[in-house]
Structure formats: C-alpha cells, structure tokens
Amino acid sequence: MFEQRWRQGAIIDFIKLALAAFLILTPWVFGFTSAAVASGNAWISGAVIGLASIAAIVALAEWEEWVSLILGLWVGISPWLLGYHATIISAMRANAAIGIAVVLLTAAELAMIRRSPPHVSA
Question: pTM of the entire structure?
C-alpha cells in the first residue's frame, strides 16, 4: 500500500517539478526578462519549488509538501505583493495559474499523506 501511495505522490511531485521548470522559463516565454522583480521572483520561486519537489521524490517527507504549499501561495499572490500585477499582465497570469496549480497539487498530496501515513518497520 505504501508503494502505491508513493507512486501517486511521486507523480504529483513530478508534475510540480514540471511546473517549477515552466515558472523558471516564464520570463523568456512571456517576454518579461527585463523586469527584474518579476523575472527574479519567477526564477527563485521556480528553483525552490523544483528543489522541494526533487527532495520529495527522493525521500518523501511532509515538510517538503509544506514548503511547496507556502511557495505556491507566494507565487500566486506575489504579483500583487511585489507590485507588478498591473504592469506585467502575462507574469501575473502565469504566477497566478502556476501558484494555484502548485497549491492544489500539494494540498492533494498532503491529504494523501495524512490519510495513510507510511508504516516504518522496526
């Protein structure tokens, strides 16, 4: 049973890793590399979400999911907090969509972890 849940969780972590990679690429894809705050936010947030996803794939631990949840929330609201929501619409839309996706995926994974915690043999 743990193997099946791990596979489901790993699939979610791989999806979050892909979202992190896309977030890193968004400044080039949507053409806002010259906007230092927006592009820097995308690069740093994407890198940290990616690292948390890789850590969760390698060794499942609940703290990685909480990091992803917090970062997903940050990515979703950061255009408003950093003040580029009205000037760089493409960055705002990309951040909102990726942030919401990361939050929803992480919430689902946390629910799976909480529903059936792994059994460790002594």
Answer: 0.85
